[in-house]
Amino acid sequence: MSSSLFTPFLITLLVAGLTFSTRFSPFALFGGGKKVPAIVQALGELLPPAVMAILVVYCLRNVNIMTAPHGLPEFIAIGIVAILHIWKRNNLLSIGGGTVIYMVLVQMVF
Amino acid sequence: MTMKKEILKYAFIQTLPVLFGYVFMGIAFGILLEEAGYNFVWALFISLTVYSGSMQFVLIGLLGGGMGIISMIVLTLSVQCRHIFYGLSFIEKFKAMGKRGWYMVFSLTDETYSLLCGMKIPEEMDKKKVFFTVAALDQSYWILGCTIGGILGSFIGFDTTGIDFAMTALFVVIFIEQWYSFPSHIPVIIGICCGTVSLIIFGANAFILPALIASVCLLLLLKNTIVKQDDCQEACE
């Protein structure tokens, strides 16, 4: 394996290992019928919505609102995903519809 | 029909909604990964080892190696920490499954978790075998979708500029679902504020770690307020 493939290979293993560790942690920590500490319980419930919001910002991190087209394709497409999803609550429709519209916007409109 | 076949048939019907979701999201993942310069072998490898929808999309951005290792670890743990709570419901059940229990732990995705929680398994069927079959079918759909996407990605003739928006759309959808499922919107608002402020201060390449740390601190500070608000709303409803 060349070195240019070795880094992504290691990163994949790291992410796979960490993912498994989060899935395994309740069995390791609380397998003996121990009580879940309140702080862990609270973070587990409250952190996911905050992380999803940060991930949306993460996806938009390279959008420059100072120069044309001022992030318009992104914001229009996100608006459409949101409207579709609030209306139908169908993941595939919202994601598929929003993506197609974004592709049209960046390829033909802006 | 033998019992084996009957279990497979039952599990297949139960997993049909996941089949469509996983195959299509998997295809989107495979195409994006191919666009990023990693062919279908990578899609196959990642879907076999990581096996997590949202994290695999985040992983595409990490593979290039631009992010520091601490940031990668914190980001992965933050995206995946919800899994800690999925396992809690199945500690005894998975333990009783022996070697297969390890696979159950590994394969406990959001979708598999919700199927396992919701199934009303017929009395005559071996519950453990049904659990294992459902989990294995789900992952096979995901592997299939990711690999097809990776192969398709290298053949697509039309202009795919902008297809990476599928990842943004996925997070927007999860975001809206989270918005609906929590009576309090404080965590979501904390995430938006910390993310945006941190992006402005630290820039596109370094904002995620400070944003996550700030969110954890604020959530712990405001924990009691959020929980109280939830209780109050639940009492009102």
Coarse structural class of chain B: mainly alpha
Largest sheet of chain B: none
Could you give the order of the helices and strands of chain A?
HHHH
Mean pLDDT figure of chain A: 88
What percentage of residues of chain B falls in helices of 4 or more residues?
over 70%
| Biggest interface, residues from each chain | A-B, 64 and 86 residues
The N- and C-terminal alpha carbons of chain B lie at a distance of 48 Å
Number of domains of chain B: 2
Distance between the termini of chain A: 41 Å
Shape of chain A: extended
- Rounded Rg of chain B: 20 Å
Number of helical regions of chain B: 12
Overall outline of chain B: globular
Overall mean pLDDT score of chain B? 88
Q: Share of helix among residues of chain A?
A: over 70%
Q: Characterize the quaternary organization of these chains.
A: heterodimer
Q: Strand percentage of chain B, roughly?
A: under 5%
Structural class of chain A: mainly alpha
Number of helices of chain A: 4
Uncertain segments of chain A are: none
Structure explained in plain terms:
The complex is a heterodimer of chains A (110) and B (237). Chain A is mostly helical. Chain A contains four helices and no strands. In chain A, helix 3 packs antiparallel against helix 4. The mean pLDDT of chain A is 88. Chain B has 237 residues and is mainly α. Chain B folds into two domains: 153 residues, no CATH class; 55 residues, no CATH class. In chain B, helix 1 packs parallel to helix 9 and helix 8 runs antiparallel to helix 9. The mean pLDDT of chain B is 88. Chains A and B meet through helix 1, helix 2, helix 3 and helix 4 of A and helix 1, helix 2, helix 3, helix 4 and helix 5 of B.
Search tags:
heterodimer; A: 110 residues; mainly alpha; 4 helices; extended; B: 237 residues; 2 domains; 12 helices; 78% helix
Secondary structure layout plus pairing:
The complex is a heterodimer of chains A (110) and B (237).
Chain A: H1 3-30, H2 38-59, H3 72-88, H4 91-109
Helix pairs in contact in A: 3-4
Chain B: H1 3-35, H2 40-49, H3 53-62, H4 69-80, H5 83-88, H6 91-95, H7 99-106, H8 110-118, H9 127-155, H10 165-181, H11 186-202, H12 208-236
